[in-house]
Design brief:
Elements (H helix, E strand, L loop, with lengths): L10 H22 L2 E6 L2 E8 L3 E5 L5 E5 L6 E6 L4 H4 L6 H17 L1 H38 L1 H11 L3 H19 L25 E2 L2 H52 L49 E3 L13 H9 L1 E7 L9 H10 L4 E4 L12 H8 L8 E3 L7 H9 L3 E2 L4 E4 L2 E5 L4 E4 L3 E4 L4 H15 L4 E3 L7 H6 L4 E4 L6 E6 L2 E5 L20 E9 L4 E10 L5 E3 L3 E2 L11 H19 L36
Parallel strand pairs: 3-5, 8-9, 9-10, 10-11, 13-16, 16-17, 17-19
Antiparallel strand pairs: 1-2, 2-5, 3-4, 4-6, 7-22, 8-20, 12-13, 14-15, 18-19, 20-21, 21-22, 21-23
Helix pairs in contact: 1-4, 3-4, 7-9, 10-11, 12-14
């Protein structure tokens, strides 16, 4: 009896099956070979995809740390490597400081592991996609090459022989794939053979972790102390965050009442100008408060007005919620005024205090800010392992809110690249438009590294000041100069080409004051630490943020609001205060103008170089500290500034 002819599947079915098999093989290759070189705490680390169903951190002779993988059968091997050389190049005198920095890095990872997990997941997905794409291209090229090499006659022979056996071939490939998967999969311990879960991590992000080797004994002995520190830290910032939310809501109620009253009376309310040169910040310990400078007056200089009597006291709250109720009276009257105002949130000198991230986001959301301005020093040492700090701070932005940064002397090109990859605008000496406001800025001309002191990035403070001044004067429409070190902006303010400068660096706030033909504001440390204090853990000093308002009709910054979080877990939010009016240029004949311009340029250069005398420690004009290297010829001590 003759065998019935086999039914041959349509051509499109055969091609679909062949392409599907090739695609599955390419995806499997891409996923199972994916890897990424990132960091874990202060260490460099290599992450590799496995089929163990576990996340395993290999700490060499110390043992391993294991967690169940959320990706089912897929796991990740973490190979811990050395701490980078740029973190270990410290003198013996700085050894304890270096070890303290390492501990801070461990605690940062322990306190916010989700940021590292997200970064690793993104890197592995990208690498898997890249490898899959390469595999697809290789398979396609090899297939096309074989297609043409075999020739038409031979292809027909192969088709007539293989086409009737399409389903058998498909089943065979599937079985082969299953066997291959079993061979390459890692051995998974049964629950009876697995090490016990460490009770130390209960209630933390590492809950359920299993430890092996000497690491288990170390964690069991000392882990409880570290977990206690971690929990105290989490509790501190949770209470501080609650206090900040309460303080903001209380002051917001007061602000709405004042705005409604001002709108009904047709007055400016709290936006009346404050006296030029006011300086409310507390001086450094043991020093007398600096006297407010007298701005140069001319017949055409706009005299500063007195502050409005309607200004309200700042709201200060602890973690206990208040009974303050919201009032909406006057909202309609003030809506039109709000439409013309652009609100910015200013932060500076974060120095990897990632615990401040949710507090920054709270203010950004409650203040309905249009952009966040970072005046630099996002990190401690500008190393690759500190990119996790950049990733964390990037999450402080509400959806659709841009962030603009002027990198400081503790940042680096590595950090700038990480900021750009997070969609942050990094100022590089040009003018950018943010929500209709023209902002000029650049990275700090100095570079400070732990244990290595401060060095120049290629230009002095004075040269950077001259370059930014020239750019501002050429542009003619700059609304704000955002720099890290205050002295870099002095010449631009003196020239009259910049109406407002915002900076950080000193870790000491200086309220808005007239400088030259503009207004200068120096933000305190948002990390909550004075110079020389640690910035990780509970606050050691007052953490400060500032809101600025820009009037699109008047084309100037008109108001500012101070937000403070104290070491005692309380918070304070000030009312909106008016910024001082910038002086008008003095009226003089052409010859006098030329002479004055030359003198102003010389004076500005001296200020940028820190050549002025009589400045108190911590003032914006003073740069050098005891740790700074000696100034070189042609540069003053003001070009050498170092912060922790």
């Amino acid at each position: 009896m003759a065998e019935a002819p086999r039914r041959i599947p349509p051509r499109w079915v055969r091609w679909t099956l062949a392409c599907a098999v090739a695609l599955v093989a390419c995806v499997a290759f891409g996923v199972l070979t994916a890897s990424a070189n990132l960091s874990l705490g202060p260490h460099e680390a290599r992450y590799e995809v496995t089929t163990s169903g576990e996340i395993t951190a290999d700490l060499g002779p110390l043992g391993t740390l294991r967690l169940d993988s959320p990706a089912g059968p897929l796991g990740v091997d973490v190979i811990i490597r050395e701490i980078p050389a740029d973190l270990t190049e410290i003198s013996q005198a700085r050894t304890l400081e270096g070890l303290s920095g390492d501990l801070d890095s461990y605690l940062q990872f322990f306190g916010s592991p989700q940021v590292t997990i997200n970064a690793v997941a993104r890197a592995l997905v990208v690498d898997a996609a890249r490898r899959t794409g390469v595999a697809i291209v290789v398979v396609a090229l090899v297939g096309a090459g074989l297609w043409f090499l075999v020739g038409r006659a031979r292809r027909r022979e192969l088709t007539s022989a293989l086409a009737p056996r399409t389903w058998e071939i498909t089943a065979g490939v599937a079985v082969l794939g299953i066997v291959a998967a079993m061979l390459v999969s890692d051995d998974v311990d049964t629950p009876a053979n697995q090490p016990p879960m460490s009770p130390v991590f209960a209630g933390t992000a590492l809950e359920g972790a299993r430890l092996t080797g000497r690491l288990a004994g170390v964690i069991d002995t000392y882990g409880a102390q570290l977990v206690g520190i971690y929990r105290d830290n989490e509790e501190f910032y949770a209470q501080a965050r609650t206090a900040l939310q309460v303080a903001w809501d209380e002051q917001a109620t007061v602000d709405r009442r004042i705005a409604a009253a001002a709108a009904s009376q047709g007055t400016a309310g709290v936006l009346a100008p404050t006296p030029a040169g006011s300086l409310d910040a507390e001086p450094p310990d043991g020093q007398e408060p600096p006297e407010a400078p007298e701005p140069a007056q001319s017949p055409e200089t706009t005299p500063p007005a007195e502050p409005s009597a309607t200004a309200a006291p700042s709201a200060r709250a602890s973690a206990t919620p208040s009974d303050a109720s919201d009032e909406s009276d006057g909202d309609d009257e003030s809506a039109a005024a709000d439409d013309r105002l652009v609100t910015f949130l200013v932060v500076s000198d974060l120095h990897c205090n990632m615990n401040m991230t949710p507090l920054i986001r709270d203010i950004a959301e409650r203040g309905e800010v249009d952009a966040i301005l970072d005046a630099g020093d996002t990190t401690m040492n500008g190393t690759a392992v500190e990119k996790v700090c950049v990733d964390t701070f990037a999450t402080a932005r509400p959806p659709g809110v841009p962030m603009v940064v002027s990198d400081g002397n503790h940042d680096s090109e590595i950090i700038a690249a990480a900021q750009k990859s997070n969609g942050i605008t990094v100022l590089d000496g040009g003018v950018v438009d943010v929500a209709g406001v023209r902002i000029l800025g650049d990275r700090d001309p100095n570079e400070t590294r732990v244990g290595a002191g401060t060095s120049s990035r290629g230009e002095t403070m004075s040269e950077a000041a001259q370059r930014l001044t020239q750019t501002a004067c050429d542009a003619g429409d700059v609304d704000l100069l955002l720099v890290h070190t205050p002295a870099v902006g002095n010449q631009a303010l003196d020239s009259g080409c910049v109406p407002l400068q915002v900076s950080g660096h000193t870790h000491l706030r200086h309220d808005p004051e007239v400088r030259g033909l503009g207004v200068r504001y120096i933000n305190g440390s948002t990390a909550g630490a004075k110079s020389g204090q640690p910035t990780v853990g509970p606050l050691h000093g007052t953490a400060e943020m500032t809101l600025l308002r820009f009037d699109l009709d008047e084309r100037r910054f008109v108001a500012w609001k101070l937000v403070e979080v104290m070491p005692d877990k309380t918070a304070s939010v000030s009312p909106w205060r008016a910024l001082p009016l910038r002086p008008s240029p003095p009226a003089a004949d052409e010859d006098t103008d030329e002479d004055t311009g030359e003198d102003a340029g010389q004076d500005a250069g001296q200020d940028a170089d820190g050549g002025g005398e009589g400045h108190a420690e911590g003032s914006p004009e003073q740069g050098a500290t005891q740790d700074a290297p000696p100034a070189t010829a042609g540069e003053s001590a003001g070009d050498q500034t170092e912060h922790p």
